[in-house]
Amino acid sequence: MLGLPDDITVALFDLDGVLTTTAVLHKAAWRNAFDAFLAERGDQSGPFTDRDYLDFVDGRPRLDGVRSFLSSRGITVDDATAGAIAEAKNAEFMAVLDRDGVTAYPGSVRYLTAARAAGLRIAVVTSSRNGEKVLAAAGLAEFVEHRVDGNTIVAEKLAGKPAPDSYLRGAQLMEVHPGRAAVFEDAISGVAAGAAGSFGYVVGIDRVGGDQAQSMRAAGASIVVTDLDDLLQS
């Protein structure tokens, strides 16, 4: 009834864009931070775009996203400058989060409810360092047994997505072999991480359209849906 193989016992969910609508807040905050940086240095390569977000930032740890995007523009900066861009982005994100709150996707709430009722164990694996706050604000913390977030990645020196390390750590915390866990991701980097970790099933959630579903399949998605509750009809 959950649209997963019968031997899957654990679900590892990304957070922003999978369970909550905060991905759009992240994208806007990144755009403002990068555009301010590019304008300050007089860069003529053009503004930060939605495609840049998907290709270089989405799903990655904060500093990895900074370096990935700047590298795409042929820009090299020192650690202090990269950190300043990342902190500017986070300050704006947190300000909007505090002002407007967080919304969980209704389809995701329905899926989490059905998964819990069916006995599927649930963890969250996110690159965000604000995972605990977002889960609490969205009213989703009750569903989650373990959380691996950006703070975990830094503290434990894990490689960020698209490396599988954070998802493998989630499986370890849940005491399950990766082959018996499903990964749920809206970012290409996250889908690639699930595939690289040899997880039993990788669900891509396409909230973008265009060629995103095709890119997710190419990155290793087992199935691509537009909302989590689509799986309840599988």
From TrEMBL:
Keywords: Carbohydrate metabolism, Hydrolase, Isomerase, Magnesium, Metal-binding, Phosphoprotein. Pfam families: Hydrolase (PF00702). The keyword Phosphoprotein applies. Its EC number is 5.4.2.6. It catalyses: beta-D-glucose 1-phosphate = beta-D-glucose 6-phosphate. Signal peptide: none annotated. Coiled coil: none annotated. SUPFAM superfamilies: HAD-like. Its cofactor is Mg(2+). InterPro entries: B-phosphoglucomutase_hydrolase, Beta-PGM-like, HAD-like_sf, HAD-SF_hydro_IA, HAD_sf, PGP-like_dom2. PANTHER family: 6-PHOSPHOGLUCONATE PHOSPHATASE, HEXITOL PHOSPHATASE B. NCBIfam families: HAD-SF-IA-v3 (TIGR01509), PGMB-YQAB-SF (TIGR02009). Belongs to the HAD-like hydrolase superfamily. CbbY/CbbZ/Gph/YieH family. This is Beta-phosphoglucomutase.
